[in-house]
Q: What sequence folds into this?
């Protein structure tokens, strides 16, 4: 069947057909001429896994442990802004998936559903992702709000001092909230299935900023954040603090010294700096600096279960999936999301069998 999802590539192919060009390119695009995204893929493809034979791998365990809690799957859901663009109710679909699989759902500062509603739907399996913005006043208001909502883990994204230039977005005039001109109107008209369902559900917006006297500019500078800002956040947040967007071993060592609970190695899906190294290629060096027992998470470029196993083999404790889950929602809604999750789980389990392992590799 043309609509069946047997791989993340299937989900992307179907999503590309069903989404307006503007929305697809917002989700799929990367910085510059997108050589960074190509390099991420090439780095994964260059890694080999060693097949082993005649080992009893009939019982395989995909669970992992994060901050003392056990997950059913070895991967979670990255924070992604404006997920409801991929399909009405996408945030809640992801929340229900997180609850079922007992994995963390990253809730973006610019989610299209209020952070309180998402953690409730996820039955507590949600981490709040924070962008520093402006002078930090509104940023710390969000910290207090996340604390009041019951979030135990905060993710500070640090690789966006300025929003990267993504030409595919710029060509379509993508802004939030939408500005509808003749080109956007034509784009939506040519994709009636998405347009009608989205209009019936209400236009997606940045739901965490529906507060009096509170505003957020997606493209505003975040460049004032520094190590002192991090110390203030560490003092203000009593729970687990994760820093996301780390690619330099020296930075990783300093973060550990500052009392940060975990690091997420990531290049923001190659959406920020085209010339950044492929995160999978720097993961081993960062693991060497922080040692075998420090929590080290990974995202960027993961497209299959084999990729997930490769990330663990390179030193990750846990992996986070991003845009491919939005493509699954665009392709088939909640059912499409469940299909792709099942595919990724099966791929991971089969990969373990092929390499003679019964559980996910551990850092050493």
A:
């Amino acid at each position: 069947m043309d609509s069946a999802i047997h791989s993340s590539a299937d989900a992307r192919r179907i999503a590309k057909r069903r989404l307006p060009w503007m929305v697809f390119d917002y989700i799929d695009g990367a910085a510059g001429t997108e050589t960074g995204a190509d390099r991420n893929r090439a780095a994964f493809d260059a890694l080999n896994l060693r097949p082993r034979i005649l080992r009893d791998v009939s019982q395989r365990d995909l669970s992992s442990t994060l901050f003392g809690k056990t997950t059913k799957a070895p991967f979670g859901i990255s924070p992604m802004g404006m997920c409801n663009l991929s399909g009405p109710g996408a945030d809640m679909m992801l929340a229900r998936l997180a609850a079922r699989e007992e994995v963390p759902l990253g809730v973006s500062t610019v989610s299209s559903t209020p952070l309180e509603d998402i953690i409730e739907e996820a039955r507590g399996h949600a981490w709040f992702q924070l962008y520093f913005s402006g002078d930090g006043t509104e940023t710390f208001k969000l910290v207090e709000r996340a604390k009041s909502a019951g979030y135990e883990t905060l993710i500070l994204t640090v690789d966006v001092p300025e929003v990267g230039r993504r030409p595919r977005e710029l060509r379509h005039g993508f802004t939030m909230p939408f500005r509808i001109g003749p080109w956007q109107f034509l784009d939506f008209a040519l994709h009636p299935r998405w347009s009608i369902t989205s209009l019936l559900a209400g236009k997606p917006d940045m739901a965490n900023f529906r507060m009096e006297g509170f505003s957020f500019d997606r493209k505003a500078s975040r460049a004032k954040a520094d190590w002192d800002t991090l110390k203030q956040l560490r003092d203000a947040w009593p729970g687990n603090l994760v820093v996301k967007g780390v690619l330099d071993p020296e930075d990783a060592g300093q973060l550990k010294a500052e009392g940060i609970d975990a690091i997420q190695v990531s290049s923001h899906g190659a959406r920020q700096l085209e010339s950044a190294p492929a995160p999978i290629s720097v993961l081993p060096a960062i693991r060497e600096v922080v040692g075998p027992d420090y929590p080290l998470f990974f995202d960027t470029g993961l497209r299959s279960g084999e990729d997930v196993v490769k990330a663990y083999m390179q030193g990750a404790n846990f992996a986070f999936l991003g845009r491919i889950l939005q493509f699954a929602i665009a392709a088939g809604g909640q059912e499409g999301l469940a299909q792709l999750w099942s595919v990724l789980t099966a791929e991971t389990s089969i990969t373990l069998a092929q390499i003679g392992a019964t559980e996910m590799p551990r850092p050493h």
User: Anything to note?
Assistant: The chain has a mean pLDDT of 93. The CA atoms of residues 114 and 153 lie 17 Å apart.
